[in-house]
């Protein structure tokens, strides 16, 4: 079957190839009565799928073509487009080589299915955190159709993790390929890339604490920025509405104060200590503060656009972030 998919992939547009690539990753599913650790491994793979989707969104591959606005990938050099295509085809091969999935990556094939991708079959299990993660990214929908032969294969084939020691190698390979796609098509700079920013915004749309905690855990070693964003988003839900309102009122007051010497502690909730908090503008440039006056990435208020930059660990004066 890998040969069939490969032959079909060689003659289609890169947008259709991108969709095929996303769909083949969906061949790995969580099975009923599967241990939580194995489901976490599938979630880790889904994180890479989300990163791939975000890259495709930046490259204009998730929407139907618009003649008036060429896809960014189409403006890249021919060699870069060819390399991107080769990488997508290689990812597809990872998930369609049955023998390799069994022997190298520790997967087992589930009985044939006749259900649509994402539907719940007799041997599959809907792992809620995965559903909530993909749901915050439009369920990874792409406005491009794939061939009927490819679709038929994807409808009938499903794999589950059998050997947890081997499967991380598959996740690592997918991660390396997604990294390569980002590196060859997006300019490097100190801040997060466009696709990374899309992922962080998607994390902010998740409203389930269990999902956020699992994402924070699974991304801790490979994607620290995503892990921190999920962890901080989760923490915001543990605060009472009253406390959130107090914090928002207090930060608004901080911004309203004139000059960097003024402080405001009268309404800031504390336990047994009183902290004197300087105006953030006296420590960091305004461009690094969110709308509530806190350093980007550290604001606890839901729906704040504070995850667009990686938080700094200390300011130029040696103080810790607010």
TrEMBL record:
Occurrences of domain Prion-inhibition and propagation HeLo (ranges): 8-214
Pfam family, one: HeLo
InterPro entries in the record: HeLo_dom, HeLo_sf
Domain of life from the UniProt record: Eukaryota
PANTHER family to which the protein is assigned, alphabetical: HELO DOMAIN-CONTAINING PROTEIN-RELATED
Name of protein: Peroxisomal membrane protein PAS20
């Amino acid at each position: 079957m890998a040969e069939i998919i490969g032959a079909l992939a060689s003659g289609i547009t890169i947008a259709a190839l991108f969709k095929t690539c996303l769909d083949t990753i969906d061949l790995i599913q969580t099975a009923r009565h599967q241990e939580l650790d194995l489901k976490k491994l599938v979630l880790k793979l889904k994180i890479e799928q989300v990163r791939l989707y975000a890259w495709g969104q930046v490259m204009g591959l998730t929407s139907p073509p618009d003649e008036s606005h060429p896809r960014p990938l189409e403006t890249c050099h021919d060699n870069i487009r060819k390399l991107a295509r080769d990488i997508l085809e290689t990812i597809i091969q990872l998930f369609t080589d049955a023998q390799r999935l069994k022997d190298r990556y520790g997967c087992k094939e589930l009985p044939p299915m006749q259900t649509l991708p994402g539907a719940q079959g007799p041997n599959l299990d809907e792992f809620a955190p995965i559903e909530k993660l993909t749901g915050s990214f439009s369920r990874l929908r792409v406005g491009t159709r794939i061939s009927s032969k490819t679709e038929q294969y994807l409808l009938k084939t499903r794999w589950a993790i059998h050997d947890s020691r081997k499967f991380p190698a598959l996740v690592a390979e997918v991660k390396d390929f997604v990294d390569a796609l980002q590196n060859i098509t997006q300019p490097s700079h100190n801040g997060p890339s466009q696709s990374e920013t899309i992922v962080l915004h998607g994390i902010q749309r998740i409203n389930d604490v269990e999902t956020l905690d699992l994402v924070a855990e699974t991304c801790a070693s490979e994607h620290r920025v995503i892990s921190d964003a999920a962890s901080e988003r989760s923490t915001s839900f543990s605060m009472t509405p009253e406390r959130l309102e107090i914090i928002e009122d207090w930060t608004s007051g901080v911004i309203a104060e004139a000059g960097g010497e003024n402080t405001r502690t009268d309404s800031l909730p504390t336990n047994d200590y009183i902290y004197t908090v300087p105006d953030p503008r006296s420590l960091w440039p305004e461009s690094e503060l969110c709308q509530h006056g806190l350093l980007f990435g550290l604001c606890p208020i839901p729906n704040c656009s504070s995850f667009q930059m990686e938080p700094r660990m200390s300011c130029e004066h040696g103080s810790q972030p607010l």
